[in-house]
Amino acid sequence: MRSTFAKPLGLAFSVLLVAQAHAADSVVSRRHADEAREYDRSESLVEPVGDLALPQALALALLHSPDLKAYSWEARAQEAATLQASLMPNPTFGANAANFGNNSIRGFDGDVVTVELSQLIELGGKRGKRTQAASLTRDLAEWDYEAKRIDVLAQVSRALVDVIVIQQRLELAQQTLDLSEQVITAASARVLAGKSSPMEETKAKVVRSSVQIEMTRAQRELEAARHKLSANWGSSTPKFARVVGNLDDIQPLPSLDSLQQRLLDNPDLARWATEITQRQAVIEVEKSKAIPDVTATLGGSNYLMTNDYALVVGVSFPLPVFDRNQGGIKEAERRLTKAEEERRGTEVRITTALNAAYQNLDAAHVEIESLRENVLPGAQQAFDAAGTGYRLGKFSFMDVLDAQRALFAGKAQYLRALADYHQSVVDVERLIGGRLNEGKEPSKSQRHP
């Protein structure tokens, strides 16, 4: 009777375990399906048309950047790893038969059938420490996502500045071409009047041809820059007509010391606090492995010949005689020391990079101010005077060409200085993790309590 009762009880218990496992799998599957549907909805990209400004480009990149999406899935994967680390070990079902080959017993009449259910009981707080380490690894994945997010924003800003600069190069080339046409017209009139040599008209046409070549080069560079910008939101066919932005918007520079105080907002540096804590948690995990776990067994044996039943209870655990996880603990401790050294190296690298970027920014700022106040006004006055004097016969044609070259060389230098300034602003903002002329922004931990 006891044997008859034990068999269906064990079978029912096993079915219950399987049913619970399938139910858990069903919940996880539904969760993953919901995430997949949400991901599919976020895939719809509305390509911008018309004028494109920086805020719109940044929003598109945050929503549709392929690189950023890849990092977001890594963060989700670490969430799943944290869930897995928190689970208890599965129970083990076992069955065996004894008394095979006994000559005095025919068939299976004399066999002993034993059914057992074993459960590993983790000691030393292994599961909690394992979950804590996995949770910190998930936090590191979030820091990596934050760093990639700022990288994407900086990359979009640089690409957008490139497009604006090339657009203005085209405008400058068009202005130069228009003035070249005016110079050719003036030279042709003087040649027809017999006041100048035909060589002057030829030289003016050579200058115009050079400007046309520059325009063709700038048009090709603009098309490449447009594709580079749209690639940040996963588009290979840019449809926007023009990028709008004011490169002449130059702000006063904060001091280098004030920027260095904001370096803690850099996720590449801020992540190391979590990294150190995670390495310490791994040490605790390795230390807990030195404590042996216990395996508890509960089952029953059925003696078929006598139709008798016996309850089986057992406990087993390894003896920590040789392996006390000494190597795993030392490895984790040395990886902690390695992380501390890497943090110091990162601090030096980021501080040095900020100093270099700030020097470039300051140099571009000084150059812009000098060109605005001294070079460009003087070059414009010289060109206007040379053009007027040439038409009145007071200046030679070479004076006009020299003044024209000086004016547009100054404008091109001013445009390069503006490009250097704004690219350096992007570099500095990437390093400090915030806007250049704003107060200290909340750190990641403050943004996500």
Overview of this protein structure:
The protein is α+β, with helices and mostly antiparallel strands and 449 residues long. The protein has 10 helices and 6 strands; from the N terminus they run H-E-H-H-E-E-H-H-E-H-H-E-E-H-H-H. The strands form 2 sheets. A 4-stranded antiparallel β-sheet has the order 2-3-5-6, with helices on one face. A two-stranded parallel sheet has the order 1-4. Helix 3 packs antiparallel against helix 4, helix 4 runs antiparallel to helix 7 and helix 7 packs antiparallel against helix 8. It is elongated, with a radius of gyration of 38 Å. The two termini are 61 Å apart. The N terminus and C terminus are likely disordered.
Topology of this protein?
Blueprint: H1 2-41, E1 50-52, H2 54-64, H3 66-85, E2 92-98, E3 112-121, H4 126-192, H5 198-230, E4 240-243, H6 256-260, H7 267-288, E5 294-303, E6 308-316, H8 326-391, H9 397-432, H10 444-447
Parallel strand pairs: 1-4
Antiparallel strand pairs: 2-3, 3-5, 5-6
Helix pairs in contact: 2-4, 3-4, 4-5, 4-7, 4-9, 7-8, 8-9
Radius of gyration: 38 Å
What's the overall geometry? elongated
Q: Kindly report the average pLDDT value.
A: 82
Briefly note the structural class of the backbone. alpha+beta
The ordered string of helix (H) and strand (E) elements is HEHHEEHHEHHEEHHH
Instruction: Bin the helical content.
Output: 55-70%
Strand content: 5-15%
Instruction: Please describe the biggest sheet, giving its number of strands, its sense, and whether it closes into a barrel.
Output: 4 strands, antiparallel
Distance between the termini: 61 Å
* Low confidence ranges: 1-42, 440-449
